[in-house]
């Protein structure tokens, strides 16, 4: 059966169930995928995903990073690139305009999607997009099945985004991301990730051009120490003839401190004077508070956010809200219309200083 959703528009997602979120990975981002993909949509707390929620109605608070005894990689720290993702996922992802998404599972391994976006805020994202997802048969766990192939094509602009994720061995994962615009290669990156029970190493090569002697190499390492606490670092080396000296390098440090009901993430590039801190506090199974703060001393700029996620599993409501130091307020509300396979969503964003207001409304058919 096909699934259809009508939502507020923004950038088109690779996973059709998400609202207001970009395609699963940006070719220039260098992020690391941490799990497999399933064609059967499940309830989650991913940012912007309609119907995000929890089915756990038991009293009390579960640990944020509760380890699963059967999973020997439960204490794997991931990468510096994804260090703040757990906090960012709890902030709302506002959307606006109009969007229609039709999902069509073709088999147990294939799924096609048709997306029509109508947005006056970002006309470049408006139009029709066709997406395809393939999931292989190599299964490592209930949530990890490989290989994974993701693609999205926009006929109007000739844009093509593609992603291949494969795990040749239990400890080795490979990810290739490419973006074409009007037949020209816009960005390409290849990531090799090596996992151990308490350590993670990722090496990324991006936008290599041998003719012009340009490209970027990223080395990322994290190690778990003292229970769930983790420390690590990242080195980025970029080569380009336009850079004085022909290349530049950035060194970064990262750390995660975690308890049963809280998590603090810290990252910094000391030589460039930039710092990033994020904090999560789980008050109950339904209510979580988050905050995020970024400082760039070289640009004399800083931005702070504080927000919350409140879930009501029995009634099917999920609320997310945030406010930042520039007086931008954003909120989303999602309601599962049980027993029907529908989810109703509302979104709003207000920039108090610039007097800008954006609103969105969506309905997802699952």
Automatic annotation (TrEMBL):
Membrane-protein topology: Multi-pass membrane protein
Pfam families membership: Porin_3 (PF01459)
UniProt-listed CDD domains: Porin3_Tom40 (cd07305)
Gene Ontology, cellular component aspect: mitochondrial outer membrane
Keyword Transmembrane: yes
Highest taxon of source: Eukaryota
Annotated compartments: Mitochondrion outer membrane
Gene3D superfamilies, per the entry: Porin
Region of interest: Disordered: 1-62
GO BP terms in the entry: protein import into mitochondrial matrix
A molecular function (GO) term: protein transmembrane transporter activity
Keywords on record: Membrane, Mitochondrion, Mitochondrion outer membrane, Protein transport, Transmembrane, Transmembrane beta strand, Transport
Comp. bias regions, Polar residues: 1-18, 31-48
Keyword Transmembrane helix in annotation: no
Family: Belongs to the Tom40 family.
Protein name per its UniProtKB record: Mitochondrial import receptor subunit TOM40
Lineage: Eukaryota, Metazoa, Spiralia, Lophotrochozoa, Platyhelminthes
